[in-house]
Write a structure and sequence with these properties.
The protein has 723 residues and is mainly α. It contains 23 helices and 9 strands. The strands form 4 sheets. A 3-stranded antiparallel beta sheet has the order 7-8-9. Helix 3 packs antiparallel against helix 5, helix 4 crosses helix 6 and helix 5 crosses helix 6. The radius of gyration is 28 Å and the shape is elongated.
Length: 723
């Protein structure tokens, strides 16, 4: 027996494969990290391969679930007692903070995946003690099992909380599907500490619009703004400017922002009766015996009034369990002075408020407590625009309720995509413009006749392929927006985006539109089918006979159904699949390719085969020859990979940051490339995929895999046919 395996010596290499710092990028920080694409790996999913959440929902007793959630709200637990015997405010905060991480810039964050269950969100300072809310809901989740996702349950709890406190919500949709691990692809900021100074993410802090894209929150670890003021320095006027920028990046206008702030703070309270120094570690940092319950408060002793969350202490209204106009009565009915909570947080208290007008203590109804306002609340009173909106709400309470109901619905459903992803009896009949509505399409036409007409149109294969790709590539799985369905590429702003080559786009659309009308098909279907026609021609020219699947039924959106400003965030700033980049960025072109591939739902292998195929097809932006490693351009062959891995060639960097592929013997320049092209030979993982497709026995596999990946991109937004 080896001395290394004798009794008492641990056989596990400490800091080995399970070490938190053990990664390729630790040793080679410039190496391209493909983890962003591994999010689409199904191996982390514990559900059966054929599990379909939409079908599971068909057997869910919706009314029973809602009743059980409402019962949970008033079942106060000794280990985390409810304020005034009701968990309404806590569940509103859980739903709000689950949805509030959404940002328009890349569509990431939000409530649609249940990501608040995992790090880093589960341990953000702004989410302190929301782990308790999830544990309170566990009996409901346990009871209904696979037919009720955590993502749905969390938002439903917020809705039921409002309903139980007298508010009529706009509606609710089931249909959010849980993820099973942290979303490593989401960039929350470069800071390495919670609540690091805001200057780290602004070019100029005094100009909120300079906040780094795609970020929306002002600090690492917060959902929106710092409730104590900019960098923790109270100044409502300055805070208002950051509120406006932050909420606009979360798809909210001024009226929706004011409604959410006021409606959110109409119920519940903040908790800060203990110094943060006495509070235990967050869930990801707490000891194993805590079983994932973080922020231990040793002084709570079963009392609701001793709870700790934000460090701010107090209620915003006289009756915190009732949705009414009490928030406005307090905010505008009194003057407020700056003070501090028992935990030391900046907050405001009313001047000369009678004892009779104060809210009761959450644990002892015979005791009155001082209410409070945060710096963000005071911004509603100080900022002229927000103040005017609040005055409108006070003059018309019903208008306030309707505005808040719609804003709350938008906040909690924004990242679910189109209404085809909505399930349940409470889905509103009204379709809202932020849901990117698309009229129902038809499949009642002769596909073969339409294909024949496209083939005889005089449009080239690459014109058809590029137009179909440009139409479909706007899709992003983060919030299920964009894609080919709706054919919004016809309208502003998409028809003027440089990446879409407007002149070529207009030419193709002017030819395809009358063909679509003549055959009774949507323009959206015709664009995609046109891409397939061009692709099948390229496959045929490569001496293969492989058809490209086509699913009819796309509809054509109307211009008035298209929120032009909202679609600006979908503009491609780079598209490595077509070797396009609008300008130089701090992030490498290769990293931007990974980001685009992840939003399109592609694996690393699918990204690889698509790039190689698009290059030999000649799909590059502006007909650039970079990366076109073939003498048979226009034919779908594996030449890109064959020449990339050919050791009779060598690569040479040029002054313009391009590269030349030269024959090692003669020095003759064979091809040119960008770093996006060469990464498939330099990165060890991508090279492994490239070698597969370069093999002599995988020529047909390459074409089949390309067709499968192409079809996936074309159908990304076809939620009506996806399982």
């Amino acid at each position: 027996m080896s001395s290394k395996s004798k009794s008492g010596v641990c056989p596990v290499m400490h800091g080995g494969n399970t070490g938190s710092d053990n990664s390729v990028t630790k040793w080679w920080p410039e190496s391209l990290n493909l983890d962003i694409l591994h999010q689409h790996d199904t191996r982390t999913n514990p559900m059966d391969p054929d599990f379909n959440y939409a079908k599971a929902l068909e057997n869910l007793d919706y009314e029973a679930v809602k009743a059980d959630v409402k019962s949970t709200l008033t079942d106060s637990q000794e280990w985390w007692p409810a304020d005034w015997g009701h968990y309404g405010g806590l569940m509103v905060r859980l739903a709000w903070h689950s949805a509030g991480s959404y940002r328009m810039g890349d569509g990431r964050g939000g409530a649609a995946t249940g990501n608040i269950r995992f790090a880093p969100l589960n341990s953000w300072p702004d989410n302190a003690s929301l782990d308790k809310a999830r544990r309170l809901l566990w009996p409901v989740k346990k009871k209904y099992g696979n037919a009720l996702s955590w993502a749905d349950l969390i938002i439903l709890a917020g809705n039921m909380a409002y309903e139980s406190m007298g508010f009529e919500t706009f509606g609710f949709a089931f249909g959010r599907q849980d993820i099973w691990g942290p979303e490593k692809d989401v960039y929350w900021g470069a800071e390495n500490e919670w609540l690091a100074p805001s200057e780290n993410r602004y070019d100029e802090l005094a100009q909120p619009s300079t906040l780094e894209n795609p970020l929306a929150a002002v600090h690492m670890g917060l959902i929106y703004v710092n409730p104590e003021g900019v960098n923790g320095n109270p100044d409502p006027a300055k805070t208002a400017l950051h509120i406006r920028e932050t909420f606009s990046r979360m798809a909210m206008n001024d009226e929706e922002t004011a409604a959410l702030t006021c409606g959110g703070h109409t119920v519940g309270k903040a908790h800060g009766m203990n110094s943060e120094a006495n509070i235990g570690a967050e869930p990801e940092g707490c000891p194993v015996h805590a079983q994932g319950l973080g922020w231990e408060n040793p002084d709570q002793n079963g009392q609701a009034n001793k709870a700790f969350t934000s460090g701010i202490e107090g209620a915003w209204s006289k009756e915190p369990l009732k949705f009414d106009m009490g928030y406005f009565d307090y905010l505008f009915g009194y003057e407020w002075e700056l003070t501090k909570s028992p935990a030391g947080a900046h907050q405001y208290q009313p001047i000369n408020m009678p004892e009779s007008e104060k809210p009761t203590d959450p644990s002892n109804p015979s005791v009155k407590q001082m209410p409070m306002m945060t710096d963000a609340d005071m911004a509603m009173k100080v900022d002229p625009t927000y103040k005017q909106i609040c005055q409108k709400f006070m003059d018309d309470p019903e208008y306030f309720k309707d505005t808040f109901a719609r804003a709350w619905f938008k906040l909690t459903h924004r990242d679910m995509g189109p209404v085809s992803n909505y399930y349940g009896p409470d889905v509103p009949e009204e379709t809202l413009i932020w849901q990117d509505p698309i009229p129902k399409g038809t499949d009642d036409y002769d596909i073969a006749a339409l294909k024949n007409a496209i083939a005889k149109s005089g449009l080239s294969n690459i014109e058809l392929i590029n137009t179909a790709w440009d139409s479909a590539r706007t899709f992003r799985g983060s919030d299920k927006r964009g894609g080919a369905n709706g054919a919004r590429i016809r309208f502003a702003p998409q028809n003027t985006w440089p990446a879409n080559e407007p002149d070529r786009l207009q030419k193709v659309l002017s030819v395809l539109a009358p063909i679509a009308q003549e055959h009774g098909a949507s323009i959206a279907d015709t664009i995609v089918l046109g891409g397939n026609v061009g692709l099948e021609n390229a496959i045929s020219e490569a001496q293969m006979d492989i058809s490209v699947p086509f699913a009819p039924g796309r509809g054509d959106a109307l211009e008035e159904q298209t929120d032009k400003d909202s679609f600006n965030v979908l503009q491609p700033l780079a598209d490595g699949f077509r070797n396009f980049q609008l300008k130089a960025y701090a992030v490498s072109p290769e990293a931007m390719l990974l980001d685009k591939a992840q939003l399109l739902g592609l694996t690393a292998a699918e990204m690889t085969v698509l790039v190689g195929g698009m290059r030999v097809l000649g799909a590059n932006y502006g007909q650039s020859k970079h990366g076109v490693f073939t003498t048979r351009m226009g034919q779908l062959t594996n030449d890109f990979f064959v020449n990339l891995t050919d050791m009779s060639m060598s690569w040479h960097p040029m002054e313009d940051k391009s590269y030349e592929l030269r024959d090692r013997s003669s020095g003759e320049v064979k091809f040119t490339a960008t770093s996006v092209d060469l990464v498939f030979g330099s990165n060890s993982i991508l090279r492994a995929y490239a070698e597969v497709y370069a093999q002599d026995d995988n020529k047909e596999k390459f074409v089949k895999d390309f067709v499968a990946a192409w079809t996936k991109v074309m159908n990304n937004d076809r939620f009506d046919i996806r399982s």
